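To the wet lab folks,

You asked to see what we're planning to order before we commit. Fair enough. Below is the target structure as tokens, and below that is the sequence we designed to fit it. If anything looks off to you, flag it before the synthesis order goes out.
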């Protein structure tokens, strides 16, 4: 195999996703319940991580054993629930940033419903401002907010030492539904969201270049889900 990505139709991609989910460790019942609830409540629920990606998040958290987690972008709290349940042994502190009042309300519902408030703190407002209120270091940072903000967020994190020496940053959706690669990369993308994701693709191309060129870090873009970039301090 000369390439790292298999070419799938949407139908085959759905079949592959179903198969991978079946043969992988499942997420918790609470995460499945929240995923179903989000899909039923929000028209843009496709922005939420899939159950398979949720299982990946839990796998990474149990592997890395972070003591402090930061996520930029909370949506309905699905990823925060993943971090919380995967770090019960280490009792990790989780800080999550969210701007959208609708998502803030949904996240607080999640935290209350599943008892997360003892270790999860939601900071409301623009992420660029909220980052400036944080202190200390984080062992795992998940970036999944407005795509034009990724470069600024990660640069601030690196410039101000918010990432611990052995920490990892995980940036989600760096493919922007394929628009980062090319505006012709995804002929199946609905017209109603094509302009939105095309603009995101422009911003994320800049972000990917920034990650590659910053001499302080190592980074790798994985062709999984909607593109995931992992970043760590250079050894």
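Sequence we intend to order:
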């Amino acid at each position: 195999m000369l390439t790292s990505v298999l070419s799938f139709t949407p139908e085959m991609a759905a079949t592959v996703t179903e198969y991978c989910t079946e043969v992988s460790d499942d997420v918790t019942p609470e995460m499945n319940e929240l995923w179903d609830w989000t899909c039923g409540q929000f028209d843009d629920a496709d922005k939420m991580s899939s159950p398979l990606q949720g299982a990946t998040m839990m796998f990474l958290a149990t592997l890395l054993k972070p003591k402090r987690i930061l996520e930029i972008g909370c949506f309905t709290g699905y990823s925060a629930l993943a971090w919380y349940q995967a770090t019960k042994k280490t009792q990790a502190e989780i800080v999550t940033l969210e701007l959208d009042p609708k998502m803030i309300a949904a996240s607080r519902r999640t935290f209350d419903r599943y008892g997360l408030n003892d270790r999860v703190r939601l900071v409301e407002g623009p992420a660029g401002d909220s980052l400036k209120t944080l202190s200390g270091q984080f062992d795992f940072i998940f970036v999944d907010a407005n795509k034009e903000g990724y470069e600024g967020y990660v640069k601030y994190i690196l410039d101000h030492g918010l990432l611990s020496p052995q920490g990892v940053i995980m940036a989600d959706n760096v493919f922007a539904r394929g628009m980062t690669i090319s505006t012709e990369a995804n002929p199946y993308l609905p017209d109603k969201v094509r302009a939105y994701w095309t603009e995101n693709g422009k911003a994320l191309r800049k972000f990917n270049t920034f990650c590659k060129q910053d001499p302080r870090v190592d980074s790798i873009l994985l062709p999984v889900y909607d593109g995931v970039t992992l970043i760590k301090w250079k050894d």
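Structural context that might help your review: The mean pLDDT is 94. Residues 66 and 136 are 14 Å apart (CA to CA).

Thanks,
Computational group
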